[in-house]
Design brief:
Elements (H helix, E strand, L loop, with lengths): L7 H9 L4 H20 L2 H8 L5 E6 L2 E7 L5 E3 L8 E5 L4 H9 L6 E5 L1 H13 L4 H9 L1 H24 L4 H10 L4 H8 L1
Parallel strand pairs: 1-4
Antiparallel strand pairs: 1-2, 2-3, 4-5
Helix pairs in contact: 6-7
Length: 194
């Protein structure tokens, strides 16, 4: 039985393919703009970030690395590569499948954090409490009814993807957890005998 990840081809391509610097630069800038958009939807998030103004985060996942500066306005900006980071955040899982499975299960991906404990606590609060309101953004462009329909379809697709990934053999922890939670009970034994 083949137990290799369906993402193994993509993983091998990602290790061989280095995008041009302008692509990386543009993608990082758009990521910062998106994060600021989400942060601006919650005043408490901006206030918490403003308390840590001037702090620099270094985020790393495999080949992807980015330095982020917290501005006095409580928003984010790209820091210069020579800036000394106050907090290092490294995603411990190399496989995108592992990260995707943990995110879809509602858990944070496995990370390694080093540096400023208070900054890490503020980012932990943001990770737990800050959510992107996709439906609200869609309603500004498409209107309320189409936005609600698209968001509902997206939620159903996400639920289907979650159930697929939970039952997928790529999730050994989930499979072991499911198997251990299905202990034989008298009701299950009667059903199996029938």
């Amino acid at each position: 039985m083949n137990t290799s990840s369906p993402f193994s081809f993509l993983e091998s391509m990602a290790t061989r393919f280095q995008p041009p610097a302008w692509v990386v630069d543009g993608a990082q800038q758009r990521l910062v703009l998106f994060l600021n958009h989400v942060v601006m939807q919650e005043k408490e998030a901006q206030d918490r970030l403003a308390r840590k103004k001037g702090s620099v985060l270094h985020v790393r996942w495999g080949l992807f690395a980015m330095d982020i500066l917290i501005t006095p306005a409580g928003l984010l900006d790209r820091a210069s590569s020579s800036a000394k980071p106050d907090l290092l955040i490294s995603v411990a899982a190399d496989s995108p499948a592992v990260v995707l499975q943990s995110v879809l299960a509602g858990k944070p991906p496995p990370v390694k954090i080093e540096g400023d404990v208070q900054l890490a606590a503020e980012l932990g609060w943001l990770a737990e409490n800050l959510r992107w309101d996709v439906e609200e953004d869609l309603s500004r462009v498409l209107g309320d009814i189409p936005a609600h329909a698209l968001a509902d379809a997206g939620r159903r697709m996400l639920a289907a993807l979650k159930s697929f990934l939970v039952s997928n053999p790529l999730a050994p922890a989930a499979s072991a957890q499911t198997a251990s939670s299905q202990k034989p009970t008298p009701a299950n034994t009667e059903k199996a005998a029938a």
